[in-house]
Amino acid sequence: MIVTHDGLGALLLGGVFMIVLIAAEAWARIGRPHPEWTRKLVHVGGGLICLGFPFFVRSPWIVLGLSVTLSGVFALGARTGQLRSLHRVARRSRGAEYYPLAVTLVFLMAQSRPWLYVASIMTLAVADAAAALVGSSYGRIRYEVDGSSKSVEGSLAFFMMAFWVIHVPLLLMTDLPRETCLLAAALVALLVTGFEAVSLGGLDNLFVPIGVCAILARITTKPVPEIVFQLGSLLALLVAGAALIRRTRAFNTGATLTFVLFAYGAWSLGSPHWAVPILLGLVLYTLIRMRWTAAGSGQVRVRILFRALVVPLVLLVLANATQSSARLFAPFVAAWATACALAAGKQAVFCRAMDKGLRCALFAGLAAVGAVILPTWGLVRTAAWPLILALSGAVVGAALVRLPFLNTQDANEQDRLWTAADLAVTCAAALAVVLLQKLPAIGVWQPARFSFPDGFI
Fold first, then answer.
1. Cα torsion at 336, 337, 342, 343 (round to 10°)?
2. Which of 208, 209, 368, 425 is close enough to 341 for a disulfide, judged by CB 3.0 to 4.6 Å?
């Protein structure tokens, strides 16, 4: 009976979606409207139809089957050029293919919590469409994200709509206090506005709903003072990021937002102690860049920065998901310090401030150790000199392995500033520290736990 009920629900929802898709396709072929309008008709209509999944379909396998089928149809339409309602936009995007996958993942993550599913899918369907339509029609203040121009007006529209579509389900479908609903909606909306701003190639259709689902599930369990603290921390990081753009011009707007989100993630998922090495590394790179910036060196872009952040980001998420912060903090610091060493060395090579080879590698490794690892030592519970030496050796060794093979031609090609070799060396440094911590003489470099002052909560 469950399969029959779920099958009927799936047929009903799938049939309604096909009507919306056919209507959008007919509009695109006959009326020839702006491509963004038909695309957003399918986007919004499909999202509103998907709101029925928790109420009409209980089997995740049926949702997955519909997701795979629709993703295949959208991909085939993109390849053959038949789905004009979705694929006539000028920008390259695979958002249509990501959309059904996002719905399935949110369905799995929000099991037995329909309010969480509704808030996530409504943000995907409504807020994203509002940003695109307002930005394309009224966007005047532009900012760059890796060659893609976005507007402040579009981002503001996304934030305002995301706030309401998150806030209303919290108020109507949960028994959470009003202040928790208000503050949680503001924090999550601000974060996913950043996700939408820096996502490229349609990845916002994946990151935004998953981000809403994961962050909202976590933040609504926190007391109000902690939510206030988290919101204030994020706003402070955004202000500092804006000041960084204006002062140094080292990062483009998208890369600056990416770094702010990463720093906040370390602050929130780990603790403020996890964010300190991130901020120290930023200071190191900024100082080196200000000292040796050459004409034509360009700005750090989202793709380059994201590649550099992949390894520490994975370690941060694993530490949070598995409650293994004591074992993964040192590998996290090692991965980040190695990324800083490679970035500093590449900057030196690019600006010809040093000769290529061991001199540059040794300088970069020692700079990262001195600026990132040694100050971080004050944040741990035990003074473990053997582990300090192990961390330092892993970072300097990684720089000595990688940077001597870097040449000026590599540094001049912005899209190759973070290669597979850099990723491998960063992984190796983190893995070396994981293995060294198993030695009795090294031990675990556990960060001190952050707590609010007595009486604050």
1. 70
2. 368
